Amino acid sequence: MATIESFVPILDLGGTFVFAISGAVAAVNRRLDIFGILVLAFVTGNVGGITRDVLIGAVPPAALVDTRYLLVSILAGIITFFWYAGVDRLRTPVLLFDAAGLAFFAVAGTQKAIEFGLGPVPSALLGMLSGIGGGMTRDVLLSEIPQVLRSDFYAVAALAGALIVVIGDGLGLPYSVSALVGGILCFGLRFMAIRHGWHLPLAHHSARQRAAVDGLNQNKTTREGN
Amino acid sequence: MATIESFVPILDLGGTFVFAISGAVAAVNRRLDIFGILVLAFVTGNVGGITRDVLIGAVPPAALVDTRYLLVSILAGIITFFWYAGVDRLRTPVLLFDAAGLAFFAVAGTQKAIEFGLGPVPSALLGMLSGIGGGMTRDVLLSEIPQVLRSDFYAVAALAGALIVVIGDGLGLPYSVSALVGGILCFGLRFMAIRHGWHLPLAHHSARQRAAVDGLNQNKTTREGN
Amino acid sequence: MATIESFVPILDLGGTFVFAISGAVAAVNRRLDIFGILVLAFVTGNVGGITRDVLIGAVPPAALVDTRYLLVSILAGIITFFWYAGVDRLRTPVLLFDAAGLAFFAVAGTQKAIEFGLGPVPSALLGMLSGIGGGMTRDVLLSEIPQVLRSDFYAVAALAGALIVVIGDGLGLPYSVSALVGGILCFGLRFMAIRHGWHLPLAHHSARQRAAVDGLNQNKTTREGN
Asked: Where in the cell is it found (chains A, B, C) (predicted)?
């Protein structure tokens, strides 16, 4: 299965690149300066994997040691800085690349955790974290609630791909097979969710909704404490 | 003192559970979807301990490797999701369980740091961090200033319990004794703070208050940079 | 070069102190209680170095093990708590000390990463992170976008100092020489940026600016998802 393995670095750096683009676009939208744009690009492209590496003890993290991750992130930041209008118009292709990046990160992150001796459940969790951690940190730095916590099938798609890798490992299948199946499942779920607007259910909380009508401003003031 | 030690896993998982409930309730209040609720439950129940483990070099962290922490967190999230109104009505019992969870986390976190060879001061700090780190991360993910930084005796209670364990260790007392005393002190302080509305002092900053009267909106715009 | 090395602990603890002052002042401005003020002081003074230490595998981090960092941070918090008006009036000297702290942290952080075997690029990045990480975490805990991502030459000055250390190491110069040159460069850039109001460029994003005029409130609602 040499064909798949020769694609791995391309997919990995490609995933970093599209994640970094999404970070840079968010930074431009919030009017950060060029340094802020580069930081958001690097953070979004790499913090998921860095956090995974810290948690499994793989320090210093690969994304710091291998300079290509930095270069790819800077490239994404610079392209967005000089060509924001163009990048913004490419929203749909970027979403598809982002789905591909998510699929790759989830699958490869799971495999790395397995290789470091973690069990199936933590490995799948860390695979998912590799995929969603960068975007979560991007949103926290922009003082927003992470989108992945309030929207569609993003994390679920990553988790599904990660679980396939874990199950494949348990069944003794070669990594290239389970990675391919897991990656396609993750990408496919994400693609369908974008196309059909799938989203996850919210909890009913009628008591609070009533309270909200009664005294929204008061509640808000109390909660936000300002 | 086998009686105490046989309670330890129950208290530990019980503490995780009540912390996870508080994360899930906060997630429902901010209208996160079911995945966001489960993430907030897990984060609030476990990130304090995970951060402590990363800082003392105990990787992969126990909360990732031992699947029961995940299961207990998911259980708390699902209960909150389907039964939010009921959980919300149980506010007072949840506060008491939360105080118990805090006491256990502070005491056990301190002991773990001591066992990893840290000195008394960092051990007490890490014990406190074990107790408050999950709730702080919950609030950061919800884009709020952590409650523990602006309210009553929460962290101080955790620190008091942690200090008892450190002092007990210095005096050569058995862990079960100092853990019991430290845990009761932490729980008691927290209970009294809830019951009597104890809170910590704020700084006087009359210069700023004057400025605030002069130009509040202007200041706010500048500070928040939007 | 014993003269320089005997200054190192003073500069290091001095840098921690001025960073801690900036955290404590921000905490008072947001009306945190005394515990919140102490936490913000410690976080701002030490999280940059702690994060660097976690990423290079130097756990437990020096700022936890060596109690002087805690004591200096608490001292800064208490001074600010009792003497806020005075500290606030010392804004310009504090900015200069802050520039000195940044210079020292960037240089010493880079050197520590080199000593742990990291290559030149990650070492320079980690040196910069040592300098800016504390302030970034301070702002995240206060639910604000980190100032360093949207303002003047702060991070660039840190990076410039870090690069000098890396280049000096590559050329085989003694650390005391490159540290002195790098530190002076960082301090000088920061000083000039404060004095002359230097800042980094923003991206043009006319498409969005047009959209903003058309429907600002609508966009904002969507983006912030409330």
From this structure: Cell membrane
Measured distance CA(A73)–CA(A49) in Å, rounded: 14
Of B61, B141, B150, Cβ closest to residue A146: B141
Report the residue of A29, A30, A32 to disrupt the C interface, i.e. the one with the largest count of C CBs within 10 Å. Answer: A32
Q: How many CA atoms lie within 13 A of A160 on its CB side?
A: 15
Q: Could you write out the DSSP letters of every residue in B11-41? A: HHHHHHHHHHHHHHHHHHHTT-BHHHHHHHH
Q: Which of B29, B50, B141 sits opposite A140 (nearest CB)?
A: B141
Q: Which helix (H) or strand (E) holds C156?
A: helix C154-171
Q: Which of C5-19, C21-35, C114-128 has the highest mean pLDDT?
A: C114-128
Query: What's the rounded Cα separation, in Å, for the pair A200 and A109?
Result: 24
- Chain centroid to CA A14: 13
Contacts of B153 (CB under 8 A, 6+ apart): B189, B190, B192, B193, B198, B199, B200
Is residue C141 within 8 Å of residue B145, measured between CB atoms? yes
Measure in Å the smallest separation between the Cα of C1 and chain A Cα atoms: 31
CB B160 within 8 Å of CB B183: no
Closest CA–CA distance from residue B51 to any residue of chain A (Å): 9
Question: Nearest residue of C to residue A24 by CA position?
Answer: C203
Q: Tokens 């798949």: give the residue.
A: A4
Domain boundaries, chain B: 2-196
Tokens for A112? 């790395």
Query: Chains A and C: how many Cβ contacts under 8 Å?
Result: 97
* Interior angle at CA C149, CA A28 and CA C58, nearest 5: 130
Option in C50, C84, C142 nearest B203 (CB): C84
What dihedral do alpha carbons B131, B135, B140, B144 form, nearest 10°? -130
Conformation bin of residue A163: beta by default, left when phi > 0, alpha when psi is -120 to 50: alpha
DSSP string, C79-142: HHHH-HHHHHHTHHHHHHHHHHHHHHHHHHHHHHHHHTT--HHHHHHHHHHHHHHHHHHHHHHT
pLDDT of B141 > 60? The answer is yes
Which DSSP letter does residue B153 get?
S
Write down the ipTM of this complex: 0.84
Task: State pLDDT tens for residues B52-105.
Answer: 999 999 999 999 999 999 999 999 999 999 988 777 777 777 788 788 889 999
Give the position of tokens 């109390």: A222
Say what the pLDDT of residue C2 is. 47
| Contact: A203, B81; criterion CB under 8 Å | yes
- How confident is the prediction for chain A on average, in pLDDT? 85
